[in-house]
Specification:
This protein is of the alpha/beta class and 297 residues long. It folds into 2 domains: 74 residues, Winged helix-like DNA-binding domain superfamily/Winged helix DNA-binding domain (Arc Repressor Mutant, subunit A, Orthogonal Bundle); 147 residues, Glucose-6-phosphate isomerase like protein, domain 1 (Rossmann fold, 3-Layer(aba) Sandwich), CATH 3.40.50.10490. Strands 2-1-3-4-5 form a 5-stranded parallel sheet, with helices on both faces. Strand 1, helix 9 and strand 2 form a beta-alpha-beta unit. The longest helix is centred in the last third of the chain and has 25 residues. It starts with a helix and ends in a 7-residue tail after the last helix. 30% of the residues are buried.
């Protein structure tokens, strides 16, 4: 988790901790050039208080803390302010500021997700999907868009995957002789009638379930065989601008899973895509040759 996210949980910090945290938030670049003694002096604390805070934040010490801080405000993080993921813009924002804000927002999401990845869970998901004889992918709203993208990629490399973009057409249909069925549920908050129904149907049909969710406390999420938490900072409210943080995190995780599956048959997949590309080129060339709108050069 990003340091700037950890700073939000103010209730867990003492008054001395908060004095240091507030100074870091107000002067992040300046702090990178301060020694532990200098930071203690400007915050009216002590070097031992600074070190204790660093360890409370999961750092080995002050040096580790400065490296982590520098990473978070490097050239990718153009602004020093933490982006509010639910409402990242204001009414008077310029197009240049919007562009920088979303660069920061996506970077925040990627760093936060990476720092919390459970590679054992991801590897388990990879093995289940690679060995499946039927894969059903479920999602709703923005999560469905992410799921359809994942389904398209898996289909490209020959995996038996299905996902419908139409509501009511996503009912689980058993595949004859399928012995290793896998269901993938993609949900930001891990709650609601749809998500509950998907989990129920998968369970009734003895289907292994992989669930990708930003709410690790979801009761439905806890029922999954493979639980991948993306730790989105978004709140469950209708007033937010959009699901940017969670979408970026989910795409990132699914791209990792897809890449790990792809590399299992790397040479075969590369050859297949090359042959497919040649066929597409031939079809486009033929289409251009017979087109009545072809211009004479």
């Amino acid at each position: 988790m990003l340091l700037l996210d950890k700073f939000k949980n103010r209730d867990q910090f003492s008054s001395l901790d908060l004095a240091i945290i507030d100074y870091v938030l107000e002067h992040p670049k300046e702090v990178m050039d301060l020694t532990v003694g200098e930071l203690a002096k400007v915050t009216y604390t002590s070097p031992s208080s600074v070190v204790r805070l660093c360890k409370k934040l999961g750092m080995k010490g002050y040096a580790d803390f400065r490296i982590k801080l520098a990473t978070e405000i490097n050239t990718f993080l153009i602004n020093e302010e933490r982006i509010e993921v639910d409402m990242p813009i204001t009414p008077d924002v310029s197009i240049d500021e919007v562009a920088k804000t979303f660069l920061n927002l996506h970077y925040q999401a990627l760093v936060n997700t990476f720092s919390n990845l459970n590679f054992d869970e991801i590897n388990e998901a990879v093995e289940l999907l690679y060995n499946a004889d039927c894969i059903e992918i479920r999602g709703k709203g923005p999560s469905l868009v992410v799921g359809l993208d994942f389904a398209w990629k898996l289909g490209k490399i020959g995996l038996p995957v299905r996902s419908s973009p139409l509501e009511g057409f996503d009912t689980f249909l058993r595949v004859k002789n399928a012995k290793n069925s896998v269901g993938v549920i993609i949900s930001n908050y891990g709650k609601g009638t749809y998500v509950n129904d998907w989990m129920h149907v998968f369970r009734v049909n003895n289907t292994k379930v992989i669930m990708i969710c930003s709410n690790p406390n979801s009761k439905i999420f806890q029922q999954a065989d493979v639980k991948i938490s993306v730790n989105s900072g978004e709140k469950d409210r209708a007033s937010k601008l959009g699901s940017f943080d969670s979408r970026t995190s989910m795409l990132y995780v699914l791209d990792i899973i897809y890449s790990m599956i792809y590399k299992k048959d790397y040479n075969l997949n590369v050859k297949s895509q090359y042959e497919h590309g040649k066929e597409i080129y031939k079809l486009e060339k033929f289409s251009n040759e017979i087109s009545p709108f072809k211009k004479e050069l």
